[in-house]
Amino acid sequence: MPRMDGKVAIVTGGSSGIGKIIVRTLSAMGAEVVMAVRDVHRGDEFAEEIRSEVKDAIVQVMKMDLSDLGSVGNFITSFKIEYERLDLLINNAGVMVPPYGLTAQGYEMQWGVNHLGHFALTGLLIDHLISTPGSRVVTQTSMAHWSGDILFDDINSELRYKPWKAYQQSKLANLLFSLELQRKLDKAGLENPISLASHPGISKTPLFRHESLLTYLALRPLMQNAGRGALTALRAATDPEVKGGDLYGPSGLTEFKGFPVKVDPRNKGNDKELAEKVWDLSEEMTGVRFEKHLRAAECSDCGCLNGD
Q1: 216 given a catalytic annotation
Q2: Quick one: pLDDT at residue 210?
Q3: Residue 271: which residues within 8 A CB-CB, separation 6 or more?
Q4: Which residue pairs, CB below 8 angstroms and at least 24 apart, start in 219-223?
Q5: Per residue in 88-102, pLDDT tens?
Q6: Domain residue extents for the chain
Q7: What is the DSSP string of 71-88?
Q8: Burial class of residue 145 (count of CB atoms within 10 Å of its CB; 0-12, 13-18, 19+)
Q9: What would the pLDDT profile of 104-161 be if each residue is shown by its tens digit?
Q10: What is the mean pLDDT of the chain?
């Protein structure tokens, strides 16, 4: 991987699982890493661990709870006070098949944390990303998108909560968001940032804490460790040959495990109309809109005032 000296990266969920590997690796490559985490104490402990391992590592911990859009907004305020650039945003944090719960704004937890929180975070940082040459957004999806659907008539699972269906819905939304973001950036004629997606295959991480022991034991022979699972996001984040709109996953025949390679979205992951509907719904639910910045860039060449 290339050196990242002087670059600033944000990693959500950087204090556990795959996020820890990503933070440690980016720090070792010279990046200044901001860990956006819910548990600041645990984040501080891990940051100290990195500083003891990596000479001159710059790791900062900032509080952010993706289940509360107010907390996301507070994080943005704190970050922008300290930083004028953002080279890399890795939307990594997530929850998988928890008991039914709601976010602070009343949205189903997996939909709110995995998708809406990251949608809002990216939208509120898009100005920094646009103004930083070579910037990237990497959004972590999952093989679960293969079977995912967006249940617009029951987006919060109020009629019936099926944990895996809700998880699949959120991870499909992650992928659709990543691809639609790149389409909107292309339409605006923007080179910065580029938007990519990655999935870690089946990796042994704390995400499985809500899963039954029987299911975990059945999947265990198919799993790879968290270090290998982190490689897909790291390739998307650092490989100079990647292109906006790419999806990276493991190289194995079933994409369960292996080295990071470019893979294809499956099933509804290719649905552009669905992606537009998810985008519009996400703007409505979060109140975050990218258009001001994208429209301003689109109009800059012709000199019109529509971007104001």
Answers
A1: no
A2: 55
A3: 176
A4: 222/256, 222/257, 223/256, 223/257
A5: 999 999 999 999 999
A6: 8-300
A7: HHHHHHHHHHHH-S--SE
A8: buried
A9: 999 999 999 999 999 999 999 999 999 999 999 999 999 899 999 999 999 999 999 9
A10: 90
Rounded CA separation 281/153 (Å): 12
Is the confidence at residue 42, as pLDDT, over 50? Answer: yes
Distance CA 186, CA 294 (A): 10
Extract the tokens encoding 161: 């909560």
Amino acid 11 reads: V
Angstrom CA distances, 59 to 35, 46, 66, 89, stand at 7, 9, 20, 15
> Which residue among 107, 161, 167, 216 is the active-site one?
167
Longest CA pairwise span in the chain (Å): 62
Give 287's contacts (C-beta < 8 A, 6+ positions apart): 69
Q: pLDDT per residue over 183-193, tens digit each?
A: 999 999 999 99
8-300 belongs to which CATH class? Answer: alpha beta
**Residue 84 one-letter amino acid:** E
| Banded model confidence at residue 227, pLDDT cuts 50, 70, 90 | confident
DSSP 3-state helix, strand, coil percentages of the chain (rounded to 5)?
50, 15, 35
Read off the tokens for 300: 């800059």
> What's the pTM value of the predicted model, to 2 decimals?
0.90
Closest CA to 255 of 94, 148, 169, 142: 142
CA–CA separation, 291 and 219 (whole Å): 42
